[in-house]
Amino acid sequence: MIKALVGCAAALLAFSGTTRAEGPKTHIVEVVSDYDNLRMAFRPKRIVIQPGDTVTWVNLEAEEHNVVSYPDGYPKAAKSVISPYMNKKAEKWSYKFNVKGTYEYHCIPHLPMGMHGRVVVGRPSETGEFHEPNATQMKNYSAMLREYFDEEDFKYKPRGQRQANGTSAHTAK
User: Fold this and answer.
1) Average pLDDT, whole number, for the chain?
2) How many independent structural domains does the chain possess?
3) How far apart are CA 112 and CA 82, in angstroms?
4) C-alpha–C-alpha distance, residues 85 and 69, integer Å
5) Are 22 and 33 in contact (CB under 8 A)?
6) Is residue 7, in this structure, part of any structural domain at all?
7) Is residue 71 part of a domain?
8) pLDDT tens for residues 11-66?
9) How far apart are CA 110 and CA 42, in angstroms?
């Protein structure tokens, strides 16, 4: 009887370690404008969270930034991440992540500087689990880029190509 009770208690302790009693959390990603080193970055560049958690991006300077997912850089069952532009110091924008998987994002104005990041919700996405953009979605994404760049300034590389090379989704021509 005592062995059975000890076994049940151990099972309960093991099970309780896998639950999330504290509920959803909010995580902060700093939007960094490092003028001294001529760098723009998200800090941390990669964050691991749980479904239901929220990420809040905080602009640390009065510099124009946004958060936009790559058209093929988020799970199939999710929506793309597109923030408004944050122009003021301490301006914030939040997004609640409900779908498990990997979300790859960047800042459009600072894309040439390599300003990109990643949110992993629960677990990383497998190759076949990423959204596959249609022609309209690619056209809309290109239109956002053209707000800042000429069409010939960048050549978009699909997810498989940029992952194989360990580079960003765009290359300067």
Assistant:
1) 85
2) 1
3) 18
4) 14
5) no
6) no
7) yes
8) 443 443 445 568 899 999 999 999 898 899 999 999 999 999 999 999 999 999 99
9) 11
In a domain, 122, yes or no: yes
The label of the residue with tokens 């090379």 reads 165
Pairing of strands 154-156, 170-172: antiparallel
Q: Which residue has the tokens 């122009």?
A: 87
- d(CA 84, CA 89) in angstroms, rounded, equals 14
What is the DSSP code (8-state) at residue 35? T
pLDDT at 65: 97
Taking alpha carbons only, the member of 78, 81, 151, 84 closest to residue 116 is: 81
Domain that holds residue 53: 23-172
> pLDDT tens digits for 88-112?
999 999 999 999 999 999 999 998 8
**Cα–Cα distance, 23 to 27 (Å, whole number):** 13
pLDDT computed for residue 9 by the predictor = 42
User: For residue 164, what pLDDT band results from cuts at 50, 70 and 90?
Assistant: low
Beta-carbon contacts of residue 2 (< 8 Å; ≥ 6 apart): none
How many Å apart are CA 116 and CA 104, to the nearest integer? 7
Q: Omega before 44 cis (within 30°)?
A: yes
